Amino acid sequence: MSNLSFDQIQVGDTLPPLTLEPINRTTLALFAGASNDHNAIHIDTDFARKAGMPDVFAHGMLSMAYLGRMLTLWVDQRQLRDFGVRFVGITHLGHRITCTGRVVEKLHAGGENRIKLEIQTANQYGETRILGDAVVAL
Fold this sequence. Notes:
The protein has 138 residues and is of the alpha+beta class. Helix content is 23%, strand content 31%. It contains three helices and five strands, in the order βαααββββ. Strands 1-3-4-5-2 form a five-stranded antiparallel beta sheet, covered by helices on one side. Strand 4 and strand 5 form a beta hairpin. Residues 22-106 form the MaoC-like domain.
């Protein structure tokens, strides 16, 4: 985490990217337990194949959690004012996810200086998996 000031930040600035280890079955099992999301499509290969998928794939919320980690490595979580995403692609086993963000607006709201960020995840092929935004108070 860094001590950033509103005046230091400019529209177009980027957050330090966060690149994760490739998605594996252990990560999916651990996330299923931590999130209490035991949907078989994420942990049972036979079920996933019967559903027409080549194999299990990551929970969307796992990648959202990675985006949250990127944000809270940059600012204290108490500074987050809004954080939302939409899922635009599946994160398969073996995908190496990189989280990125960029400042798109500086604003004043609720008596605070805030910045709006566009955030996303992409795999090692450059394919976007999640698009989102966040608002941070500085």
